[in-house]
Amino acid sequence: MYFHIDIEKTLRSGQREFKLKANFTSNSGRIVIYGASGAGKSQMLKAVAGLMHPDRGVIELAGKRLFDSVAGINITPQKRRVAYLFQDYALFPHLNVRQNIAFGMQGGWFNPKPTANSEALEYWLDAFELRAVAHQPPSQLSGGQRQRVALARALIANPAALLLDEPFAALDPALRVRMRAELDALQQRLGIPMLLITHDPDDANTFGGHVLTMSDGAIIEERHV
Ligand SMILES: Nc1ncnc2c1ncn2[C@@H]1O[C@H](COP(=O)(O)OP(=O)(O)OP(=O)(O)O)[C@@H](O)[C@H]1O
């Protein structure tokens, strides 16, 4: 079993209350959570990453309990070994491609050297065809290159799962089609479980796998594409 999630969380802001009450189990290596804006997708992803603590429930990944409110288990985000790819990729603007990717390998506060190198770093530079732009900062990259740098930075840490928040939203339509295919191939090659959230039905239909539809904080439909 890759994922088992059964969580509840109430978010309050003034008079407004949002209840997340989500429950699913999946054996699929690729899971898509699809739903309109405000459905609760990001909160769900944050709970898996350890960035949001549910009020109640259980989160299990590949047989490992990451969160269990009854047993008092709450593994820190750093120890969960899940990589989070943010919607805007969150690259460091003052670091070049090489440094941005190297950042994924190390803890601590110091920036990697502009000439950082390691076997893993060289591997990802080649795998994502980023060697030619390795010395450039994110501002001098195309949208697809930026996404590949973010993916390389996430994957170099050898995560147990990859969480993707609207990974294609910032791309133009042609590039979106290409990057969907690249992610598809990457998932097949690495076999790493991916959990992707989107409000685009095309993402759900093309990336496929186990597609869960979310509405108003709950999973209301499941299908396999
Ligand atoms: N800190 C908070 N306090 C109160 N309500 C919150 C908080 N964070 C999020 N919410 C509410 O929770 C609901 C779900 O938000 P979430 O970001 O998970 O939606 P989403 O499905 O990811 O939407 P989008 O596709 O627009 O990113 C929204 O109604 C939002 O207003």
From TrEMBL:
* UniProt KW keywords: ATP-binding, Cell membrane, Membrane, Nucleotide-binding, Transport
| A UniProt-annotated Pfam family | ABC_tran
Domain (ABC transporter): give its ranges.
Answer: 2-225
Specify whether Transport is a keyword of the entry: yes
Which Gene3D superfamilies does UniProt cross-reference here? P-loop containing nucleotide triphosphate hydrolases
From the Swiss-Prot or TrEMBL record, what is one GO molecular function term? ATP binding
The highest taxon in the source lineage is: Bacteria
Q: Which PROSITE patterns match?
A: ABC_TRANSPORTER_1, ABC_TRANSPORTER_2
Q: Work out whether the entry's keyword set contains Plastid.
A: no
Q: Which PANTHER family match?
A: SPERMIDINE/PUTRESCINE IMPORT ATP-BINDING PROTEIN POTA, SPERMIDINE_PUTRESCINE IMPORT ATP-BINDING PROTEIN POTA
Name of the protein = Molybdate transport system ATP-binding protein
